[in-house]
Write a structure and sequence with these properties.
Length: 153
């Protein structure tokens, strides 16, 4: 990375998720339909660009793979209670990654903030998650990963 980009990156910090974006995310996951699909896409893009950009691609992909694994388990077993319990168990893994980023000091500071943002959104989404909107949750997560690839490089 050249110095110009390095300086620009070091001066940029991820934003905290604003309440409107959080509510938009919850609403589109809860009730995705043809009338709000555009908002679904815009919300996923905004989160990836403004709030999650500094999460390492491999970490975000690992979180996504974990959730996709729970989707496969659910599709095979049809045991929603077990699936949701397993989805909640990603939160301690997120806490561990936040702690590791914080240990890196200034270098990991932006990633720690981005991971905290992600953990906050993920926790809020789990609160509204049920069998009926689980596929919307998966699609939303997938859209975030896709836009993250675009914005995180």
């Amino acid at each position: 990375m050249d110095n110009r980009n390095q300086n620009r990156e070091s001066n940029y910090q991820p934003k905290q998720i604003d309440e409107q974006t959080l509510q938009d995310a919850l609403n589109v996951v809860k009730n995705l339909n043809s009338s709000n699909v555009e908002n679904f896409i815009k919300t996923a893009e905004k989160l990836a660009r403004e709030n999650f950009k500094f999460i390492a691609k491999s970490k975000l992909r690992d979180f996504y793979d974990y959730v996709k694994g729970k989707e496969l388990d659910f599709n095979n077993k049809k045991d929603w209670d077990s699936c949701k319990k397993e989805l909640y168990l990603l939160i301690p893994k997120l806490a561990y990654q936040i702690g590791r980023a914080k240990e890196q000091g200034k270098k990991g500071g932006n990633e720690a903030i981005a991971l905290e943002n992600f953990e906050h959104l993920y926790s809020k989404l789990l609160e509204i998650l049920d069998e009926n909107n689980f596929q919307n949750f998966i699609k939303f997560f997938e859209a975030i990963v896709a836009y993250h690839k675009q914005y995180a490089g």
